[in-house]
Every structure is written in C-alpha cells, then in structure tokens.
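User: Just a sanity check before I run the rest of the batch. Below are the structure tokens for the first item. I only need the designed sequence back.
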C-alpha cells in the first residue's frame, strides 16, 4: 500500500507508481496538455532550466545585483575591514534598526555577503531554486515568496538573534523559496520543475543542517525564512486553481 500523490488516498500497486489509476490518468492528460503548449510555442525551452512556462528574469536580476554589490564591496576595502564595509553597504545590525530607525537594513542585508564563499554558495542555491520556481510559477509569485521570506529571516534575526551581531546574506530568502516550493509541491502533489516534495525536503535538510553545524552562520534567519516561505507556499497551493501547472 502507498499513498497516492494526487488524492492522498492509499492504493495497492505492484509497480513503482505514485498515483492511483484515476489520478494517473488525470496527470497524463495534464502532461499532454502541457506538451501541446510546448509544441504550439506557448512554452519554450531555455538552456538554463529546460522547459518552463516563464523566463526567470527576476532570478537573473537578483544574481546581477548581488554580484555588483560584492564587487563594489571589494573595491571599497572589504579585504581590509569586512565588518565595516558590510555595514556600510546595508548589513543588518540590531541597534541601527531599533534605535536609529534604519529599517531598510531588513531588506538591504539580503544583498550583502561576507566573502566570496558565502556569496558563491548563496548564488548557486539561488540559481538552482530561483530559476526553477520562477520558471514554473512566474515572477510575481517568486517575488512575493522571496520578499516575504527575506523579511521573515531578517525579523527572526532581529528579535531572536544576538544584539551585537552584524548579519547579512540572501540565505534567509533562499531558504524561504525552498520552503515555498516544498509546501506547494507537497500540498498540490506535483513537481516544481524536476523536483518533487521529497527532493525539496532533502535540500531543506541540508541547508538547515549546514546553518546549525557551521560557525558564524545565521541559522535563525534560515529558519525564519523557511517557515515564512512555507506558510506562503501553503496559502498559494490551497488557493490556486487548476490541476496541472
């Protein structure tokens, strides 16, 4: 016995099938309908994400902006004074927000990174999950999930993190995108690109474990972004109409 990915009900099968016969038939019709859109030119394949309904414009823009800021920070003395340079370019610091009213740091900190490794890992993760989610669900949903998750991570750091830590990075928003994709795929019992809910859960476990194990990693932001993105994904999955894509 296994649970159907379509209706969630248990069914018997000797094969490695994930859907009961009625849901499998419904799914195949959806696939055929989607493939027809590809043949008609309504859905075009792009080399960076395969076949997708939307181009990931926003993901590319985010990668570009983060890259520009990283370059400017190094040109502006990051190597000699990392914390001061990061703070200058918008890193989050509790006193600056609560006592000086610099609330814009809750968002600007998403574009600031501590070193090349921090930057490269976040951008790789953003490319993988960002282009996939935006390519499947569109820029508007991706933008909403990214912004809400980023704010969730920043606010969690503000109220539950250290008052003396300078924090920055896109990881809170990125973890939120993983949470958003997981909840959407799980509730709708569908794929986000080529990723199902189980594959997405593996990514989530890895990212959260990394935040807990490695020193000087903002696990609070990771968790805050993940929860916020997951809640938003649940809402979108429950309110969106249509059986396929």
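Assistant: Here's the designed sequence for the first item:
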């Amino acid at each position: 016995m296994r649970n159907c990915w379509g209706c969630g009900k248990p069914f018997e099968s000797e094969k490695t099938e994930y859907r009961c016969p009625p849901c499998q038939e419904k799914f195949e019709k959806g696939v055929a309908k989607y493939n027809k859109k590809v043949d008609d030119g309504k859905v075009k394949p792009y080399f960076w994400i395969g076949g997708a309904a939307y181009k990931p414009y926003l993901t590319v823009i985010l990668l570009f902006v983060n890259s520009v800021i990283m370059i400017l920070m190094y040109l502006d003395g990051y190597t000699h004074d990392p914390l001061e340079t990061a703070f200058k370019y918008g890193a989050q610091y509790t006193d600056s927000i609560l006592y000086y009213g610099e609330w814009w740091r809750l968002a600007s900190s998403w574009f600031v990174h501590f070193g090349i490794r921090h930057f490269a890992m976040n951008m790789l993760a953003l490319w993988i999950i960002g282009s996939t989610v935006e390519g499947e669900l569109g820029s508007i949903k991706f933008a909403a999930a990214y912004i809400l998750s980023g704010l969730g991570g920043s606010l969690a750091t503000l109220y539950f993190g250290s008052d003396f830590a300078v924090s920055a990075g896109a990881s809170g928003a990125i973890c939120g995108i993983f949470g958003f994709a997981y909840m959407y795929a799980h509730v709708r019992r569908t794929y986000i690109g080529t990723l199902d809910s189980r594959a997405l859960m593996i990514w989530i476990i890895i990212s959260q474990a990394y935040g807990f194990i490695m020193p000087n990693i903002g696990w609070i932001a990771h968790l805050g972004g993940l929860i916020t993105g997951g809640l938003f994904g649940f809402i979108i999955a429950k309110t969106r109409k249509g059986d396929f894509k």
